[in-house]
Amino acid sequence: MADVLVVGELKNGELKKISKELTSAGRKIADSIGGKVHTVIITDNVDAFASDLKAVGADTVIGANLGEFSPEGYANGIFAIIQEKKPAVVLIPHSAQGKEYSARVAIKANAGIVADAVGLSVDGGKVVAKKPIYSGKAYANFKVTSDIQIFTVRANSQEVTPKDGAGAVEKSGASAGEVRTKSLSKDLSGGNKVQLADASIIVSGGRGIKGPENWPIIQDLADTLGAALGASRATVDAGWISHSHQVGQTGKTVSPNCYIACGISGAIQHLAGMGSSKYIVAINKDGDAPIFKVATYGVVADLFEVVPALTSEFKKVLG
Amino acid sequence: MKIVVLVKQVPDTETNIKVGDKSINEAGVKWIISPYDEFAIEEGIRIREKSGGEVIAVSLGPDRAVEALRTAYAMGVDRAVHVKVDDYVTFDSTYTSELLANLIKAENADVVIGGRQSIDTDSSQVVVQIAERLNVPHVAMALKLEFDGNKVTATREIEGGTEVVETSAPLAVTAQKGLNEPRYPSLKGIMSAKKKPVDVKKPEELGATGSKLEVVSLEPPPPRIAGRKLEAADAQGFASQLVKALREEAKVI
Ligand SMILES: Cc1cc2nc3c(=O)[nH]c(=O)nc-3n(C[C@H](O)[C@H](O)[C@H](O)COP(=O)(O)OP(=O)(O)OC[C@H]3O[C@@H](n4cnc5c(N)ncnc54)[C@H](O)[C@@H]3O)c2cc1C
Questions:
Q1: CA geometry: angle at B5 spanning B2 and B8, to 5°?
Q2: Which tens digit of pLDDT belongs to each residue from B162-219?
Q3: Considering Cα of B174, then B177, then B181, then B185, what sign does the dihedral take?
Q4: For B91-137, what is each residue's pLDDT tens digit?
Q5: Pick from A19, A72, A244, B67: CA 20 to 30 A from residue B12's CA?
Q6: Whose CA is nearest to atom 19 of ligand 1?
Q7: What is the Å distance from ligand 1's center to B177 Cα?
Q8: Average pLDDT, chain A
Q9: Does residue B230 lie within any of the structural domains?
Q10: What are the tens digits of pLDDT across the range A96-109?
Q11: Using a CB-CB distance cutoff of 8 angstroms, which residues of chain B are in contact with residue A116?
């Protein structure tokens, strides 16, 4: 059997879009290599997600009750499910959590892994994974030669296509097992309302915003669009905003459908983090700024005039 | 404490990358230590400065990787080991982690520290894979590390914030920006680093089972959708054009 096992992800009890993206991508792979798609959701309430995942191709929707996130616990639980389902291909989100537990899963399963794939295709019964390397200055295509092929996949890189799977619901008996790192406390106060890593729209500010007192101009646009707030390193280094907002090589890698860069010059290290965005809008008063080389839509103008106008225009049409 | 710090050589971000068939054309590439690995070296040295012991820098790569180890020496590590391999196997995290874990097993290290990711492959895999291979706990994206004997309290970055965790050595750690400020090598350090010995290990000596990845091809990045600069008389004009473009043409909002 050449089944595909997909690990989904929840956020505040709701299905993240990546869960559907990977189930859909898994469906295409399974159809090509002749197998089933099993989507695992870490929850004790799997029934709530079954129909959404069936609709994008899941044959089995598996609930695994592994408790609070811990990389060791998730790795133990997911490996137990791998042993049971014996998939040929495993797809895991390249999220903060996914990139961490996938490393342990790969070793337990004695499997090769390609992390941060943005493209998945099949050649000769094996998955070919495409991923950006060298800060997006090249792309590499890899095959995994072990029996089990594991891939972590970047959010927003896969299409969601409706296709009915069997949608059977299973509750897994897998457990988190021994976990040697204990969580003492969490502080989620400094973060984004919308997470950067899987946001489909990001509005980012750079040194062009002049000072921290002007973030509200950028935040207003972000809020209007339900977008995450991003920042260039220059603003983080200046102490205008916390590092958790930084996009780029030493910040977060993002791949939204739409990235709106306000007062950002487009240095190579910034492009390394957002260069794979589907549509890029640049608002910059310097028409020669490098950001315009990658921008789908360029606006050469003062952001202090254009961004508020854009916010009110969107408010009108989005109601 | 015995501390192993992992040091990878990567092309400087500003370097122009020329894509070959299965590897890049290295002519003219400027090589640096992957920025997050500098935090790892610094943290290793700080732990030794506080609790005593030894810091061993390990780099896996072709001949040129020795330069990275010289820099680590200049910063203050005590020993350096070069795992000498062909170049592009360094894409393969499980092969890399197997070689390194076997080396570290023999060293019996208390702490292994690497960067949160190397900036050439951005995979975030090797250090946590080593933890799994050594059967020890790990702390990823560490922002703060405190040792009390074998007990370790760490602050780490998680999605949307930070988390404080407790665990124990032996363990593996990945360094996130904010863990420390890496020191500059002193002139004296640089001079003496030139003469220090670098231990060379071949993959055969480390008993790895081999690569699990096949490089099918490399290619240049996909061309971007041809961009266009919007023309408008004023901010309002730009705003209405952009809204139209994003909603009707791109259909992303
Ligand atoms: C090792 C290393 C890692 C790095 N990692 C990152 C990273 O992760 N992320 C990152 O972003 N950078 C990173 N950098 C820094 C990067 O090189 C740039 O310095 C940084 O991205 C510049 O930020 P900026 O575009 O906000 O500022 P600037 O380059 O100063 O650009 C500001 C822009 O705003 C425009 N502007 C000014 N006023 C207005 C106005 N009123 N209206 C419209 N436009 C205006 C200007 O024309 C200019 O183009 C890194 C650098 C190094 C060396």
A1: 160
A2: 999 999 999 999 999 999 999 999 999 999 999 999 999 999 999 888 899 999 999 9
A3: positive
A4: 999 999 999 999 999 999 999 999 999 999 999 999 999 999 999 99
A5: A244
A6: A234
A7: 18
A8: 96
A9: yes
A10: 999 999 999 999 99
A11: 122-124
A287 touches chain B (CB under 8 A): yes
Is the CB of B71 inside 8 Å of chain A's CB atoms? no
Same domain, B240 and B130: no
Nearest protein Cα to ligand 1, atom 23: A234
Q: Nearest residue on chain A to B23, judged by CA atoms?
A: A140
Q: What's the pLDDT at A198?
A: 82
Radius of gyration of chain A (CA): 21
**Dihedrals phi, psi of B178, to nearest 5 degrees:** 110, -15
CA distance A292 to chain B (A): 8
User: Which residue segments constitute the domains of chain A, with CATH numbers given?
Assistant: 4-172 (3.40.50.620), 196-318 (3.40.50.1220)
A103:B217 CB<8 A: no
- Span A233-263, pLDDT tens digits: 999 999 999 999 999 999 999 999 999 999 9
B147 - beta bridge partners? B152
Element (H, E) at B94: helix B93-107
Q: Distance (Å) from the C-alpha of residue A63 to the closest C-alpha of chain B?
A: 23
Do B54 and B86 fall into the same domain? yes
Q: Ligand 1: residues within 6 Å at CB? A: A 206-208, 232-235, 246-251, 263-265, 267, 269-270, 273, 283-286, 289, 302-304; B 35
Residue A156's closest CA among A253, A240, A234, A292?
A253
Can you point out the beta strands (E) in chain A?
4-7, 10-11, 14-15, 37-42, 60-64, 89-93, 112-117, 119-123, 126-133, 138-144, 149-153, 168-172, 182-187, 201-205, 228-231, 258-262, 279-284, 297-300
Alpha carbon of A288 to those of A205, A293, A298: distances in Å? 18, 9, 11
Does the annotation list A207 as a binding residue?
yes
Alpha-carbon dihedral of residues B50, B54, B57, B63, nearest 10 degrees? 150
| A106 in contact with chain B, both atoms CB, cutoff 8 A | yes
Residue at B214 is within a domain: no
Q: Is A125 on the interface with B (CB under 8 A)?
A: no
Residue from the list A97, A145, A243 with its beta carbon closest to the beta carbon of B212: A145
Residue B236 is part of which domain span?
A: 222-252
Q: Do A184 and B166 touch (CB under 8 A)?
A: yes
For chain A, the straight-line distance linking the first and the last C-alpha, in angstroms and rounded, comes to 50
Q: How many CB pairs under 8 A join A and B?
A: 257
CA atoms within 13 A on the CB side of A1: 11
Instruction: Map residue A239 onto helix, strand or coil.
Output: coil
Q: Is the peptide bond before A256 cis (omega within 30 degrees of 0)?
A: no
